[in-house]
Amino acid sequence: RSISQEAWGRTVTMLTYKAARYGGALHKVPAPGTSGRCSACGFTTPGSRESQAVFVCKNPGCGWSGNADHNAARNTLHLYRMGLALVPAAGRAVVRRAGRVKPATAR
After folding, report:
1. Rounded Cα distance, 71 and 61, in Å
2. In sequence order, which residues have a C-beta less than 8 Å from that of residue 83 and are 6 or more positions away?
3. For residue 66, what is the DSSP state?
């Protein structure tokens, strides 16, 4: 429940702002299907992810196995490199401006 209560939009906005500050860019990549697709051969089948941590490709010609999260990360990188990333991650970065400071006599 705590994950669903997080302010993900604000997190993305802040990451975009920080990346831009240091000369980088943040790109959102669609995650659905990345954990069920083999990053070595591209074969997709529901049974390839044997557990939370283990991925084994069911393609008879491939048979690649490894960490499921590593496999999903490789697929995400592939989607980014193919230009399937959603750019930009947030519509705009939040820029904070200094508020007006009232004179001491007006307080």
Report:
1. 18
2. none
3. E
What is the tens place of the pLDDT at every residue in 76-102? 888 888 877 765 555 544 444 444 544
What is the CB neighbour count within 10 angstroms for residue 28? 14
Instruction: Of 42, 11, 27, give the one whose Cα is nearest residue 81.
Output: 27
Cβ 62 vs Cβ 43: under 8 Å: yes
Secondary structure (3-state) at 84: coil
Identify residue 60 by its one-letter amino acid code.
Answer: P
Domain definitions of the chain by residue range: 8-94
pTM reported for the whole predicted model:
0.63
- H or E segment at 14? helix 8-21
**How many H helices and E strands in the chain?**
2, 2
